[in-house]
Amino acid sequence: MKEKLKRIPIVVRLLQLLHPTYSTCTICGLPWSNCESHTIQVTKYKGFFHVCQYCWERSDVHTLKQACIPVYNMWLREWERFNVKPDITLQQMYDAVEKDKLNN
Ligand SMILES: [Zn+2]
Predict the structure, then answer these.
(1) Which of 46, 57, 60, 71 is the most buried (most CB within 10 A)?
(2) Distance between CA atoms of 50 and 39, rounded to whole angstroms?
């Protein structure tokens, strides 16, 4: 119940204001200081987290894939800013989400 209450939009907004330096789950919007992330491995050395464990368990594969887009766009801006070659594609993220979701 507490997990559900934390995700009421006004509570989410308040927690975001209280923890402005943290990035957030791309589904419920909770800052990482207030929820547990779900890490997905792409390769042995590369992983990412874009949603919290709560949202991971309650969302379908399509929703979880869509939730990768804001993270990927943020990375694109970072790679461009630092003139770094991207080391992951959006398709690799989609494949990793699908594989992880089907195995859990
Ligand atoms: Zn979430």
Answers:
(1) 71
(2) 8
What tokens were used for 88? Answer: 């992951």
CA of 62 to the centre of ligand 1 (A): 15
DSSP state for residue 67 in the 8-state scheme: T
pTM of the prediction? 0.89
Residue 1: what pLDDT? 63
Mean pLDDT of 66-77: 95
**Residue 21 to residues 10, 33, 42, 102, Cα–Cα distance (Å):** 18, 10, 26, 33
CA of 83 to the centre of ligand 1 (A): 31
Structure tokens at 95: 């494949």
The pLDDT tens digits for 31-62 are 999 999 999 998 888 899 999 999 999 999 99
- Per DSSP, the chain holds a count of helices (H) and strands (E) of 6, 2
